[in-house]
Amino acid sequence: MPRSAFHFKLQLFITFLTFILSQSSCSSCPINVWPKPRTFSWPNPQANPLSPSFQIISPSHFYLSKAISHYLNLINTEHHLPLVRPFVNFSSSSPPLRALRITVYDLVTPLQHGVNETYTLTIPSSGGTASLAAQTAWGAIWGLETFSQLVWGSPSRVAAGVYLLDKPLFPHRGLVLDTSRNYYGVEDIKRTIMAMGANKMNVFHWHITDSHSFPLVIPSEPELSSKGSYGSEMVYTPDDVKEIVEFGLSHGVRVVPEIDSPGHTGSWAEAYPEIVTCANMFWWPAGSDSLDKLAAEPGTGHLNPLNPKTYEVLKNVIADVVKLFPEPFYHGGADEIIPGCWKADPAIQSFLSNGGTLSQALETFVNSTFPFIVSLNRTVVYWEDVFLDDLIKVNSSCLPPEHTILQTWNNGPNNTKKLVDAGYRVIVSSAEFYYLDCGHGDFVGNNSRYNQPPGSDPGNGGSWCGPFKTWETIYNYDITYGLSEEEAKLVLGGEVALWSEQADPTVLDSRLWPRSSAMAEALWSGNKDEKGVKRYAEATDRLNEWRYRMVRRGIAAEPIQPLWCVRNPGMCNTVHPI
Ligand SMILES: *[C@@H]1O[C@H](CO)[C@@H](O)[C@H](O)[C@H]1NC(C)=O
Ligand SMILES: *[C@@H]1O[C@H](CO)[C@@H](O)[C@H](O)[C@H]1NC(C)=O
Ligand SMILES: *[C@@H]1O[C@H](CO)[C@@H](O)[C@H](O)[C@H]1NC(C)=O
Ligand SMILES: *[C@@H]1O[C@H](CO)[C@@H](O)[C@H](O)[C@H]1NC(C)=O
Ligand SMILES: *[C@@H]1O[C@H](CO)[C@@H](O)[C@H](O)[C@H]1NC(C)=O
Ligand SMILES: *[C@@H]1O[C@H](CO)[C@@H](O)[C@H](O)[C@H]1NC(C)=O
Ligand SMILES: *[C@@H]1O[C@H](CO)[C@@H](O)[C@H](O)[C@H]1NC(C)=O
Question: Of 66, 100, 373, 448, which has the fewest Cβ atoms less than 10 A away?
Fold first, then answer.
């Protein structure tokens, strides 16, 4: 065993012993870290000065080194002033903490699904050098974030006599951002990724294209964005993508691209009208039944599964996207096929009148693209619709579970169970818990729903997924509800989602934060305390503090309570079950 490996194990063992010996004295110690660490021990809450020449000592690793520059700067300059004075002893004459030494056992493993994210952090009460040990660079980045949250004040002080052993409950902790309905600049995306990393969220699911605009520059199909974007200023070039992917890696965040198809593709018609059915038609013609809509919302267009040209273009897109995004997951969308849109096409009409079905048309589409994506060494992620839709879906034989992950958004835990029962790995994005855009009403114009006599029941505000999901709704959702232990193993984790019909950079931060932080903690260390009781009361105070710290870091997270509540912990709680 190499010396460093031996040291690492020895250190783990000693720290583990310390932990066992002192755990009972500390389960209720306040620790202002978000997400809350899985296990920590801080028997005598104390803080020491942080040396003005504080340093981080680390093995060399391309992304970890970038993370260290980021965190060293943050740690030395943040000077966070807690809203509530921490309950710790501090003496400016205590020996200062001079350095943090990082040990990484495996410097080779790239950032990918399931990578070992475990880290331990020991900050001695005697000052000197703290140690952060992790299996991979990615776990070490999480340890740096935790360390940064244990530093506060001006001059800086740092928690001391503390030991943490931390690792996530779920390996997939993501956020979906839709950049098609409205455009976000590269800086907005990077700020979002930075905030994700600070919350130990590790997957930025980038819903890049949709019916409304096609902002991604595809080198082999440049007209898709030159004609299908909102304008030459509202595109993502290959250099922009590289910048975002690299930025993600230095914050522990994978960037998973989604090119939604065959639905949600109206914007492709600007360059290739011949491969898109029902493009630029009115989404819900006057006098027609709701079932005869051409789109789920304004912005029509589906790729035509029966036109060979569709696959020429789409395979060029897929091949370029795979080159732009090193990430092993590829999200193919495949949600919300609207029958009316395909039925508007003459070739599909004759296919149907010859006995074909829309589900067969979708199977043709999946069979013509899925094996191609797999041949490029990618695991395919689709929305659950491809398999669970009431009307148009494919046979599971087209979607071998070893290459397929399905993302659920309907019917809460019921659909999660259906998917795992069929043997699929699942990402949970249940709309009634995890959709961050909900609660802003409907966006269609001329909406008589809002012109009702006073006293009419406002219901959910006229939005299919209203009401607004509060941070506590998100925090308390148990994504494996109703599953056996065996079934729960197929649940990889979850993703909150911001669909952008009514969002753009002006509201991005406040729609995402701190509500995404609620999911981040629930998936990292759970939403219950050691006794198995939901811990939303304790979390309220910590989340207030964390939201305030995020704001100081440049994330315009919305408040969750009046400042008075923050300064008077517990006084805004209810002590009655409601
Ligand atoms: C702070 O130190 C005093 C005196 O040593 C001790 O009585 C007290 O319990 C300590 N407080 C905490 C929070 O550790
Ligand atoms: C992750 O790494 C830690 C530290 O090396 C190790 O103890 C643990 O067994 C690893 N976990 C897995 C699942 O390999
Ligand atoms: C396929 O992807 C895996 C990661 O998912 C990687 O380890 C492997 O090297 C890749 N194989 C090829 C041939 O690129
Ligand atoms: C799925 O395909 C298999 C094999 O072709 C077939 O036996 C089965 O009946 C199909 N299931 C459905 C629901 O169409
Ligand atoms: C799609 O592929 C599956 C699995 O190979 C096959 O059973 C099915 O018949 C194919 N469907 C169509 C419409 O080609
Ligand atoms: C889930 O299924 C149960 C039992 O069939 C049903 O009562 C409940 O309404 C369903 N929940 C959702 C969100 O669809
Ligand atoms: C507004 O909606 C009404 C029906 O509710 C319709 O008759 C009218 O044409 C619509 N006006 C516009 C401008 O779309």
Answer: 448
Assigned token pair, 363: 């199977």
Taking CB atoms and a 6 Å cutoff, what residues make up the pocket around ligand 4? 395, 397
Alpha-carbon distance 77 to 156, whole Å?
A: 9
- Distance linking the first and last C-alpha atoms of the chain: 58
Name the active-site residue from 246, 336, 432, 487: 336
Q: Which atom of ligand 1 is nearest to the CA of 44?
A: 14
Give percent of the chain with pLDDT exceeding 90: 91
Instruction: Please answer whether residues 206 and 258 qualify as being in contact, where contact means their C-beta atoms are separated by less than 8 angstroms.
Output: yes
Q: Are 461 and 439 in contact (CB under 8 A)?
A: yes
Assigned token pair, 455: 């006293």
CB atoms within 10 A of CB 5: 12
Beta bridge partners, 13, equal none
Residue with tokens 């490029």: 376
Domains of the chain: 3-166 (3.30.379.10), 172-444+458-526 (3.20.20.80), 528-578 (no CATH)
C-alpha angle 255-258-260 in degrees, rounded to nearest 5: 175
- pLDDT tops 50 at residue 27: no
For the entire predicted model, the pTM comes to 0.94
| Ligand 1 pocket, mutate which of 31, 44, 94 (most atoms under 8 A from CB) | 44
Q: What H or E segment, with its residue span, contains residue 101?
A: strand 97-106
Q: Which residues line ligand 3 (CB under 6 A)?
A: 112, 328, 377
Given a contact cutoff of 8 angstroms between Cβ atoms, the answer to whether 486 and 425 are in contact is no
Contact (Cβ atoms closer than 8 angstroms) between residue 260 and residue 210: yes
The pocket around ligand 7, CB under 6 angstroms, is made up of 446, 448
523 neighbors 479 (Cβ within 8 angstroms)? yes
Q: Which tokens go with 139?
A: 């776990």
**Active-site residue, 336 included:** yes
Average model confidence (pLDDT) across the chain: 94
Is residue 397 in contact with ligand 5, taking CB distance under 6 Å? yes
Ligand 5 atom 3: residue of nearest CA: 398
Whether residue 455 has pLDDT greater than 90: no
- Using DSSP bridges, classify how beta strands 172-178 and 491-498 pair: parallel, antiparallel or unpaired: parallel
User: Quick one: how far is CA 478 from the chain centroid?
Assistant: 16
Ranges of beta strands (E only) in 1-45 are 39-41
How large a percentage of the chain has pLDDT more than 70? 95
Cross-strand partners of 206: 177, 257
